[in-house]
Structures are given as C-alpha cells and as structure tokens.
From TrEMBL, chain A:
This is ABC transporter permease. Keywords: Cell membrane, Membrane, Transmembrane, Transmembrane helix, Transport. It is found in: Cell membrane. GO terms for molecular function: ABC-type transporter activity. Residues 113-342 form the ABC transmembrane type-2 domain. It comes from Fictibacillus arsenicus.
Automatic annotation (TrEMBL), chain B:
Residues 5-232 form the ABC transporter domain. InterPro entries: AAA+_ATPase (IPR003593), ABC_transporter-like_ATP-bd (IPR003439), ABC_transporter-like_CS (IPR017871), P-loop_NTPase (IPR027417). SMART domains: AAA (SM00382). PANTHER family: ABC TRANSPORTER G FAMILY MEMBER 20 ISOFORM X1, ATP-BINDING CASSETTE, SUB-FAMILY H, MEMBER 1. It comes from Fictibacillus arsenicus. This is ABC transporter ATP-binding protein. PROSITE patterns: ABC_TRANSPORTER_1, ABC_TRANSPORTER_2. Keywords: ATP-binding, Nucleotide-binding. One of its GO terms (molecular function) is ATP binding. The lineage of its organism: Bacteria, Bacillati, Bacillota, Bacilli, Bacillales.
C-alpha cells in the first residue's frame, strides 16, 4: 500500500521530468549510434609495396588487390615506408617471402597481414605448402562479415544501461534526502524496506522500457548481430538495470550532493568497463582478475554476449542472471540498513 | 489529564557539539504547547526527536506511553517540518494524495480529507498547480495540510506560520484551537513572541536548555513582566549572570 503510493509518486515525478526521461531513453541510443558509425566505417585500406624478382608474381599481386603497388627500387620503398606513405613492404624472392611492416598502427598491421595472407592464398590455391602463412579461416562464432561493433555492442548496451540508471536513480534518491522529503517520510509509518522497494519498483518500470528500447534499437536499427533471443537480452539488461538502480540508491547515502554522486562514476562505474568484457580479462595482471568477480557488469556483459553472439539460451545465462539478482538483493538490504542512520526502525 | 508527550532528561550531541542539555518536559492531552526560543536554540532538534526521526544521545522520550521511535505511533503523529518537504514537480493535490496514501487513507475518505485540509489552509483553488509555482507561504500551508490529513492525535509543527500573512495566521490558529478542543495535542515551535501568547503552555528554550516553562500568564506573573518577551529576557538574563 505505502509502497504503491511511492511507486505512483515516482512515476508521476519522472514523467514530468522530460529531460531526465530523454537522458534515460534517448542518450544511450545516440551514443550507441555514434559508436556504431565509428566502428563500422570503411575498413582500413593498407598501402603495400611489392618487390619481387619475378615480375609475374608482382603484377599478379597488383592485379589481385589494389593495395599492392609494385616497386622496382628497394631503397625508394624503404624511404616511403619510413615516411609512412606505405604500411608495409613485401619482398617475394622465391622461395622466401619477407614482410616489413611500418608497425606503429595495430589496425594497419592487421589489415596488411590479412590482405597479404588473403591475396597470396588466392594466387596459389593449388599449392598450399608454398604459402608459409597458410591458414584455414573458420568462424566458430560470428562470421566473416561480423564487424567490430557486433563485438563491443553487447557490452556497450549493458554499460550504458548501467551507467544511466545508476546516475538517475542515485541522484533521485539523493534528492529525496537533500530536499528533506526523506526525513518527512521517516516521520510517517513508512518502513525503510518499503521505501527501498518503492524506489526499485518505481524506477524498475522505467528501466524495463529503457531496456526494451535500447535492445530493440540496437538490433533492428543498428543491425547489431543477434544470434539468440531478444527476450533474454532484455531480461539480462533489466537485471543489470535493477543492480545499477539498487547500487545507485545505496551509494547516494554516502553523497552529500549531486556533485558527490557524480564523483562515484569514476570510482564505481568506469572500472567496470574494464571488466565487462570489452577488454580481455585473461590478459590482466593476476591480482587484478579476481576483482572482476565483484563487478556486476562482468556478469551482465558476459551474459549479453552469450546471447547476442553465441546464441545462448537460458542454460547459458541463468547463472549470470542469478548473480545479478543476488547483487541487487544485497544492495537493497544494505540500503535498508544504511537508512538506519536516519531512523532506528 | 494525562501526559501524551514525555521527555525525560534528554541531551543531544552532534559529534562533539552539545545541542540540547537535560531537557525534561511534559505535554498533556488537548494542550497547545509552544516551544519558544531564538534561532539555534535547539527547537527543531527537540521536536525531531519527539517525532522519532532523531535519537537522543542521552535520556528517553515517550509518546502516548510508548518509547519513540515507534512505527505505530507515527500514524498517530502529524509532523510538519521546518523546511517544506514537498515534491515540487507534483501538484499540490498530488502531494496531498501521496501523503494521504502513506497514512492508509483511500477512496472517498481520502478525497474528503484532502478537500478539508486544503480548505483549512486556503489552498483549494491552487491544488492543480505544480508546487514549483507556489509561493513560500503557499508551500508552508501545503506542508501544514499534509500534516493534518490523517487526523493525528498529536500534531508537531515546526514554525508553522513563518511566511504566512496575519489574516491567514489568525485563521490557522483558530483551527488549531478547534483541533485542540476536539482532543488533539499540539506541539508547536516558534520564535515569534506574540505567537507564544497563543499557546496554553510554553517552554522557553535557549542554548539547548529549557530555561523556563509554564503558561504564558504564569511566566509573566512570576517575572513581573508585561510581555512574554520581557519574561524571556528575564530568564535569559538570570542564566547569563550565573
Ligand atoms: N544535523 C546537524 N548536525 C550538526 N549540528 C546540527 C545539526 N542540526 C542542528 N545542529 C545544530 O544544533 C543547534 C540547534 O539547531 P536547531 O535546528 O535545533 O535550532 P532551532 O532552534 O530549530 O533554530 P531555528 O529557529 O533557526 O530553526 C544549532 O547550533 C545547529 O547548528
Ligand atoms: Mg528550527
């Protein structure tokens, strides 16, 4: 009853606040679109010099891919490489092949290696042994036309939902304290847990809408790769949002004003980026890796990725969903205890 | 008559600062008890402890024979804070509706109570407006209405008439008298001397101590003062000489 009154009030307040609504629903879409544009731009086109004692091979390469430019003069090529006009020099003096990379840009390096590999392979399909870099390319997950955005998109969806919900819920609860209405509520028979539950439910309704909007937008408008069921993704993002919501309201107890709430972002939200799966956790320092278990976004990011890229179902994600539910519950209980600071019961 | 609010030897510290010192007082049923004192005397701190939203460092407080804080008691207390605790995005009506639901009022009863409380503070025609657009006095009145909604047995009002014009102030006091006649106990803080005269009982608070208490008449007579102000100065002066 009291919780319902609180939920109703939060919904009313939130609907009045058009700007915060936009921040919650539209800002993530805008940023996702931008990231999508950045990462789906044209692939890097490398410039590769070909120097060969066999003119036939050289011109074959040049014809096969317009990244290749035949150079007669080895010194000229070396100069151009130095001046970054070239990304690489390929010297083919049968039977040996030597590749010199400019090397300062990892994207260029990768593009060079892929172009060379692909072209050499297409030139010598009948004789595999000749190509020293011969590889069979197979995709266990994803596909040849999977873009970078397909890979980072799922984490970004999780991250933005976490970020915006954390901030908005945290500031709202904080404002309840700074405007004196929290104290006013504590002078009523409302219980502390009713208050926390009211906040989670009230904001929960908006996070459902937010999750649905962001996930549908990513899939249907940005055309992000989606191997599994959209409902699972919405479920995971919702659990992530509830975690962010309960963490935000909990931490707001330790902030005196909005600015101090914002100071939690570099402390609490940003570190999670590094563990959400955007970066490879296995390559981190050993002592750092256990930290990832403490971060809700690790589980959210992992689960979203399981569904969107690997097409996983309930059996793949239920453990992560349960962990997120556990986090939410823990934060809520801690919040109920934190409110004890204001009223003993 | 029975005591509904009993404060036993209460002291309150904020970190190391002592804000209230050994306060004991009794408020009887039906009484209008005024806490009078200059700014910073500790009035708000004291009434918050009585309302159950602060805990005494020392001593104890009983309301309706139950130690505070107590959730059951909170339904029987109406509290109006010194700073208006309202949701400014919402309309006046929505604010009242929210507080009414929290006290478990619903349906026609809720509607009735909201209408009654709003008319009491002359806000009926402004209920649709968002509180953001209210003047300071209007917000004050809305806070008062919110405290009256659930017909509490005890009303705790922290400077209820600040920013309210004399005419409306008079009508609010008339309403307080009516409530008191009907059985409500009222604890009100003020630093306005002429308002103190309107209370049945007075407690004079200064620097965290209760320097005197009694009816306005008694306080004036025993200090041979013409006004409450003189009486207050007298007690304050005596304390200063010690
Ligand atoms: N939360 C707090 N933390 C620290 N000190 C406080 C706190 N609240 C009040 N005080 C101090 O307690 C003293 C009494 O404050 P209180 O608000 O009770 O005064 P008051 O009599 O209500 O004054 P006013 O008439 O201005 O409202 C003041 O010195 C104030 O600085
Ligand atoms: Mg005060």
């Amino acid at each position: 009853m009291r919780t319902r009154a609180l939920v109703k009030r939060i919904i009313r307040q939130f609907i009045r606040d058009k700007r915060t609504l936009a921040m919650m629903f539209l800002a993530p879409l805008l940023i996702l679109t931008l990231v999508n544009l950045v990462f789906s731009g044209n692939d890097y086109d490398p410039e590769i010099a070909v120097i060969s004692n066999s003119e036939q091979i050289a011109s074959q390469l040049e014809k096969a891919d317009n990244s290749f430019i035949v150079y007669e003069n080895k010194k000229r090529a070396a100069e151009d490489l130095e001046n970054e006009k070239l990304d690489a020099i390929v010297e083919i003096n049968s039977p040996s092949t030597k590749i010199t990379l400019e090397g300062s840009n990892p994207t260029a390096n990768k593009a060079v290696m892929m172009t060379v590999e692909k072209t050499l392979k297409s030139l010598t399909p009948q004789n595999h042994q000749q190509s020293s870099m011969e590889t069979e390319i197979d995709y266990l997950h994803g596909s040849a036309d999977m873009e970078s955005f397909d890979y980072i998109g799922p984490f970004l969806i999780g991250f933005f939902i976490f970020f915006f919900v954390f901030l908005i819920a945290g500031v709202s609860f904080l404002r309840e304290r700074t405007t004196g209405t929290l104290e006013r509520l504590l002078a009523t028979p409302m219980r502390r847990w009713e208050m926390v539950a009211g906040y989670v439910l009230g904001f929960g309704i908006f996070t459902i809408i937010q999750s649905a909007i962001i996930v549908s937008f990513s899939i249907y408008v940005l055309d992000i790769m989606m191997a599994g069921s959209i409902w699972f993704v919405i479920l995971i993002t919702l659990m992530l949002a509830v975690t962010a919501l309960s963490l935000g309201t909990l931490l707001s107890a330790f902030a005196k004003n909005e600015l101090q709430m914002i100071q939690f972002i570099p402390l609490v939200v940003v570190p999670q980026v590094f563990f959400s799966g955007l970066f490879n956790i296995e390559t981190m320092a050993d002592w750092l890796q256990p930290l990832s278990y403490l971060m809700p976004l690790t589980y959210g990011g992992q689960a979203i990725r399981d569904v969107m890229i690997q097409g996983g179902g309930w059996s793949e994600i239920y453990d992560e969903v349960l962990v997120l539910a556990g986090f939410s519950l823990l934060f809520m209980v801690l919040n109920v205890l934190a409110l004890k600071k204001h009223r003993k019961l | 008559m029975t005591s509904v609010i009993q404060v036993f030897d209460v002291s309150k510290n904020y970190s190391s600062q002592r804000v209230l010192e050994n306060i004991s007082l009794n408020v009887k049923k039906n009484e209008i008890y005024g806490l009078l004192g200059p700014s910073g005397a500790g009035k708000t701190t004291l009434v918050k402890m009585i309302a159950g939203i602060e805990t005494p460092t020392k001593g104890s407080i009983e309301v309706l024979d139950t130690p505070m804080p107590n959730l059951q008691n909170m339904t029987r207390i109406g509290f109006m804070a010194q700073s208006d605790a309202l949701y400014v995005e919402l309309s006046g009506h929505e604010n009242l509706e929210f507080f009414a639901s929290i006290y478990g009022l619903k349906g026609t009863k809720q509607k009735e109570r909201i209408e009654h409380a709003a008319s009491l503070v002359n806000l009926t025609e402004f209920l649709k407006k968002p509180v953001q657009q209210y003047s300071g006095g209007m917000k004050r009145r809305l806070s008062l209405a919110a405290a009256l909604l659930h017909e509490p047995e005890i009303l705790i009002l922290d400077e209820p008439t600040v920013g309210i014009d004399p005419v409306l102030r008079q009508s609010i006091w008339n309403e307080l008298y009516k409530l008191s006649d009907a059985g409500t106990t009222i604890l009100v803080t003020t630093h306005v001397m002429d308002e103190a005269e309107k209370c049945g009982q007075l407690g004079m608070l200064r620097d965290g101590r209760l320097i005197a208490s009694g009816s306005p008449q008694q306080l004036k007579e025993s200090t041979a003062s013409a006004t409450i102000e003189d009486a207050f100065l007298y007690y304050g002066g005596v304390r200063n000489e010690n």
